[in-house]
Amino acid sequence: MSTETILVLGGSFAGISSAHFALKHIIPVLPKKDGITYNVTVVNPSKDFYWRIAGPRVAASKELMPYNKLFYPIEPAFAYAKGKFNFVQGKATHVDSAGQTVSVETASGEQKNIPYAALVIATGFSTPSPLFTQTTDRAALEATYEAFHSQLKHAKTVVIGGAGPVAVELAGELAEAVNGKPGFMASAPKNPKVKVTVISAEKKMLPILRESISKQAEKFLKRVGAEVVYNTKVVSATKASDAEDAKMTVQLSDGKTIEADIYIDATGTRPNTNFLPKEWLDNRNRVSCNAKTLRVEAAGPRVYVVGDCGSYTRGGVMDQYDAIPVAMTNLRTDLIAHLSGQTPGPDRHYEANLKEQQLVPIGTSKGVGAANGMALPSVMVWGIKGRDYMIGMLVEGHMNGKTYEKEGKWKPQPVVAAAQMGTSRG
């Protein structure tokens, strides 16, 4: 008896969704052969899925966002696929494309080599601040939040480097949590307890959104006691000593310095790809792929990438709803051809949605954003995301796979010859 494995690296948004899609729409249609079984295996450093979207609110207050709303066990979400699903708690350390195996260091320190018939890279990204990255398990990240909350109780100044959505959301959540909501007609708190400063390298915040929306975000931040410094970069942030309450000296690109009780680096993300061969990566260390089929052509046959570690995307969970069905449909096409010896069928193509689209809550009652190129009123941003950071809207469908009960309609694209692609599809 042998097993053919669809191996998914990563157990966050992209990885869990890919696994559900494979179990619902790929495993059932693979060729029936005596002595061969099929399974989907997910590898992830934590046994719990982390709802990263809500990170800014839980960083501000675990009363506003309890830990039990952030973490969801992965294995129970796949109970419906008993015998066809495996979970390995660990992290990938090496990929052998010639032998089609992945080396994994498990949580217990064991070294495992997992063979694959098809490989999905969905390892996502890490953030400079530990507040928004789950590198090991739930307990470790909860400990990080506890330490931060303890520090926040005594802080008078907080500096946030970066002006993307996480930085803006964090500034709004922190400032409102410590300074409270202003009066109905007030433009700012009368006596703010903590000064929160956002350092933007550009002339505006929120790069994806138009300037008028960025200006509205600044007004909402001022209402809760946060200010923005533009056209300035953080050069360095140095702690005066190893003492827990030691102050930070934040050096800015204009030559000025800010003394802060807390400095949070929210300047961007780093793809989790350091275990992959360099020739698989682009100049940003993202997995280089065919932007239409999401195949990783440098990796040989039946390797695909989905999520924020891929070169095809500008990032964000919403983009994955378009990308995952594409990558997984093409995986199915290629895998069936490989197992049956037949010519691969037509491709499914990914089309990036580049319309202005982003929702940014600012505190517990305000927000800015746009959807499909249209600016949204604050109350709508609050209703969609700011109310609970989409936990009620997305978690259930995402975790149990209901989002991918159907694979969706798609228009087959002409098959590109392997010689033209530069790699074999079979």
What would you note in describing this structure?
There is one protein chain. By secondary structure, this protein is of the alpha/beta class. The protein has two domains: 2-127 and 269-352 and 411-421, 3-Layer(bba) Sandwich (FAD/NAD(P)-binding domain), CATH 3.50.50.60; 134-265, FAD/NAD(P)-binding domain. The protein contains nine helices and 21 strands. It has helices spanning 13-25, 55-60, 138-152, 165-179, 211-223, 317-340, 378-386, 391-400, 418-421, and strands spanning 2-9, 36-44, 48-50, 71-73, 85-96, 101-106, 111-115, 118-121, 125-126, 157-161, 195-199, 226-229, 234-239, 248-252, 257-260, 262-265, 270-271, 303-305, 358-362, 366-371, 374-375. The strands form six sheets. A seven-stranded mixed β-sheet has the order 7-6-5-2-1-8-18, covered by helices on one side. Strand 19 and strand 20 form a beta hairpin. Helix 1 packs across helix 6 (317-340). It starts with a strand and ends in a 5-residue tail after the last helix.
